[in-house]
Amino acid sequence: MSGKSEARIIGSAVAGVSELALFHPVDTVAKRLMSTETRVITLSSPGQTAANLNTAIFRDCANLGIGQKAVSLFPGVGFGAAYKILQRVYKFGGQPVVLDRMTKTFGADFDEKFGHKTGRTLLSATSGSIIGIGEVVLLPLDALKVKAQTAPEQLHGSGVIEIFKTEGFGLYRGALPTVMRNAPGSFALFGGNTAAKLAMGVGEDGVRATWTQDAIASCVGATASITVAAPLDVIKTRIQNRPFDSPESGVTIFRRLIQQEGVGALFKGLTPKLLVVGPKLIFSFTVAQHLIGYFEQALK
Known about the structure:
The chain is an all-alpha fold. It has eleven helices and no strands. α1 crosses α2 (46-58), α1 packs antiparallel against α11 (270-298) and α9 (211-241) packs across α11 (270-298). The chain is globular, with a radius of gyration of 20 Å.
């Protein structure tokens, strides 16, 4: 294994572990809000809104003490660890590999058609989109993590191996919405990141970004990615949240959502994602990019 490959794996893995330790409770809050199928915000009654949020976020622990409420935000951490570390290594470590190959093959053509900066941005975005589509392989771990966070009663009494044997490809329910979410989301993430770096004059010709520059670029990419992917993320979460034996398709869930909750429901959880989950992605992407650059230099 080359030093560059080792650097990408190590940097991405450290980013995944760090993100999980700091942000798993926040992810639980966002997933629970997205899977809540009733109106949460009541503009005419702040007290009712607070009660709705308390029930939606803490579920069975809504009436317990602060400590027990806090502990309730850590369900599925085992699935979360496996999923998050593998996802970050695959995504943040894999995208540069695809980008390198695409640059060698199509770099000159993209530069000629779109200009150098736009061509580099589109190559980065496209390679990110390809990686995002392939991320669907990890969907079973994500599905189990979401169930543990939003519907833990469905997992009680079942071991991991038993669940995989029983459900099989059923754990890939929601694969199409996941691909439809990941493709534009990853396109925006890596494209926005690269565009911001090029605007700051870093990322090419051996010019390494500082921590601040990596953070700014990650912020641009993460904000674009989360916003673009929000509607399909809501649909995917509800598909994964339903019982294993539920026959409802993503189309059925989408139609019911629009009829009962309105178009605005497609963006449920967007505000906490941008304000809290957004920094999670910004944090991990910044750490991964900076450490990959550091280890590439150190392992030469």
